[in-house]
Design goal:
two-stranded antiparallel ribbon, single chain, 15 helices, 12 strands
């Protein structure tokens, strides 16, 4: 069992243990990858204030996210094709999240279906929905999420068209991978991954194949997806989905204060400050830089969460300090999953929790929910002055 002290340890193992195309799918952004890089690097510009001679007993990371008690203010982000990082990956990640006491969010483009995850877990999970032109499919997904007992719908707003990720195109990314000589060699060089995949029947997009109209195989999934992202998604369609869902609603992909206000007007229970992990609009602000203005714009009218760039418990605390009520992690848990399966996801969550606890203590804080703006130092020009 390798010794894991940080997310980077898991990242290195992940890179060694999965085929290149799935590593690249996780560790890449669109075009020049500027936003992808700055999501992480902008956290480094924020400094923590050390405080001493404080009572540090009774420390707790516990919080709530949209009214749901959580062991720490961290949820697992929806990540497509997670079941290609490790066999049955969504089930493994959901189980790890359930045991740790944090929310798991299943992607529309998951390998394990919503019914599979529900059958292998006992705690309600969250479901992420892409809005497609095929309204029957969208309606069906909402109905399936209700039947599965999902406790929140995470509606993604920033994928009306697909951003270009050079690595995915060059690798010919598919799930499962096509049996080309290059891919077969790559899989042979990763026997642990290949053995796991050989033992599962879940190899393609379980929420789509057999559910979307005339989609019965992988080739049809790719064509259907490329043709069905909805470029006409607007706030009226969001309101329709809100009414149809009727439960807790998180709007994902908010990066501008004006959009945040519109989300509040629509009645969102939470907004997720997100730039899709730097995988859509390259050159956009990092989420941590966009966060303060969005928090000011909405005040206490809705909960504000953040994803993008979180690789440590310190990053979680910095997001809380700048106004987030909770955070989502994507690549951090995927590195754990690709490295060691369910145990790796648990290891990633454990790393973040321990870093939060120690950092919070050294900043003189007992409760994570009390970690605020007074506990960090932020560069004067951090948000930027844009003309």
């Amino acid at each position: 069992m390798p010794i894991i002290t940080c997310i980077d340890d898991l990242k290195k193992l992940h890179k060694r243990r999965v085929p290149k195309m799935f590593w690249d799918y996780c560790e890449s952004g669109s075009y020049t990858e500027q936003t992808f890089r700055e999501n992480e690097s902008d956290f480094h510009k924020i400094r923590l204030r050390q405080r001493v001679a404080r009572d540090l007993t009774g420390r707790t990371l516990s919080a709530t996210m949209i009214g749901q008690p959580v062991s720490m203010p961290v949820a697992l982000s929806p990540v497509g094709s997670t079941g290609m990082q490790s066999a049955d990956g969504e089930i493994k990640a959901a189980r790890a999240a359930q045991a740790f006491g944090v929310p798991f969010t299943l992607s529309t483009f998951s390998i394990c279906s919503i019914e599979d995850v529900a059958a292998h877990t006992t705690a309600p999970f969250w479901f992420q929905l892409y809005v497609m032109k095929d309204e029957d499919f969208v309606d069906g997904m909402i109905a399936r999420a209700k039947t599965a007992g999902c406790s929140a719908l995470v509606l993604t707003l920033d994928l009306q068209i697909l951003g270009q990720r050079h690595k995915d195109i060059k690798n010919g990314l598919t799930a499962p991978p096509k049996m080309t000589p290059r891919n077969m060699l790559d899989m042979a060089l990763h026997p642990r991954w290949s053995f796991g995949m050989a033992r599962t029947r879940r190899h393609s997009f379980g929420n789509i194949v057999g559910h979307a109209r005339n989609v019965e195989n992988l080739q049809q999934v790719t064509r259907w997806a490329n043709e069905n992202y909805d470029p006409q998604l607007d706030w009226a369609k969001v309101a329709r989905i809100r009414d149809q869902w009727g439960g807790k609603l998180i709007l994902k992909g908010i990066l501008d204060p004006d959009d945040a206000r519109l989300a509040v007007d629509l009645g969102a229970d939470a907004i997720l400050v997100s730039n899709h992990g730097g995988r859509q609009l390259d050159g956009a602000l990092s989420t941590i830089r966009a966060l303060p203005a969005i928090v000011r714009a909405v005040g206490e009218q809705t909960e504000v969460f953040l994803d993008g760039g979180i690789r440590s418990g310190q990053d979680v605390l910095k997001a809380l300090a700048l106004g987030a009520k909770g955070t989502f992690i994507g690549r951090s848990f995927v590195h754990g999953l690709g490295a060691m399966g369910q145990a790796g996801v648990t290891a990633a969550l454990d790393v973040i929790a321990k870093e939060m606890d120690v950092t919070m203590a050294l900043c003189g804080v007992q409760h994570a929910r009390a970690f605020g703006r007074d506990h960090v130092l932020v560069p004067e020009d951090f948000e930027g002055r844009w003309i």
